[in-house]
Each structure stands twice: as C-alpha cells, then as structure tokens.
Amino acid sequence: MTEHDSHVQHTWNLTHPVADPITIDLWTDGYSVRVEGGDEQSTEGGRKDVDRFLEKYALRGYWVASDYAVNDPHELEPEPELPDDQPDGCPECGQPCEYKPLYDSGTKEGPAWLCTGCRWRVWSVGI
Ligand SMILES: [Zn+2]
User: Fold this and answer.
1) How far apart are CA 89 and CA 87, in angstroms?
2) DSSP tag of 66
3) Is 92 within 8 Å of 118 (Cβ atoms)?
C-alpha cells in the first residue's frame, strides 16, 4: 500500500478501443470521486456518481477493464452461513432450494431446505 492510494476505497479502470483510458477512484470518505481522463474531474457524490459515470462512459463505448477494492474494509458483505447439505435442486421440479433456519412443519420445527418452486422440503442438519 503506497501513500498515494491510501485514501482510495475502490478503483475502476475503463478502456476504449480508440480513446484514452479513464480511471475512476472512489475515496475512503465514501463521497469523494476523482476521475482521471474523460471529461469529469471530481465530484462529492460517492458511489452514486461512480455508477452515473460508468453508465455515461459505457454509452460512449467504454467498458470496465478492471475494478478492485483498494482500501475497503467496510463494504465487504459477509457470506451467508449455510449448512453443508444443500440439495443441488428440488428433486420434484428442479428449482433451487432455500434454507430456512427455523422451519415449522406443524409437527416439527427445525432447519430445513424449501423448494422455491413447489412445496417440496427436506430437513437439514443445520449450521
Ligand atoms: Zn420443487
């Protein structure tokens, strides 16, 4: 980590077949946006502006060659915890199954996998 990018939260690198590349930086303060190349210089609109610029430049033929978090400990979403016995799909209709940590069948309560398509379900060992 260099001094130079310690204030940067996320970087988008845009490329174009003929035009110069554009770099968009979202700063760690969550609202400062700096654009290098292109005709935008800087705004304080945060991620909303980044999306706006990405859309704007996409319409001009740019695409995102790469984007990566530079300093971003806060926006990492935790993986949802799921038990290991997830069915590949519903054996009845093939739809994916979703996990209910506390399913009540009327006679029993516990972790279960429920088909999102039909009413098929199977009890789970839980987490
Ligand atoms: Zn089903």
Assistant:
1) 5
2) E
3) yes
Task: Compute the distance from residue 120 Cα to the ligand 1 centre, in Å.
Answer: 5
Structural domain boundaries in the chain: 3-69, 81-127
The answer on pLDDT for 88 being more than 90 is yes
Give the pLDDT band of residue 70 (cuts 50, 70, 90): confident
CA of residue 97 to ligand 1 center, whole Å = 8
**What's the gap in Å between 123 CA and the centre of ligand 1?**
14
Q: Give kind and range of the element (H or E) at residue 58.
A: helix 46-59
Kindly give the distance from the C-alpha atom of residue 39 to the centroid of ligand 1, in angstroms, as a whole number: 52
Q: Report pLDDT digits (tens) over 3-43.
A: 578 889 999 999 999 999 999 999 989 999 999 998 888 89
pTM for this one?
0.53
Give me ligand 1 centre to Cα 77, in Å: 29
Let me know: does 41 contact 35? Beta carbons within 8 Å.
yes
The terminus-to-terminus CA distance of the chain in angstroms comes to 37
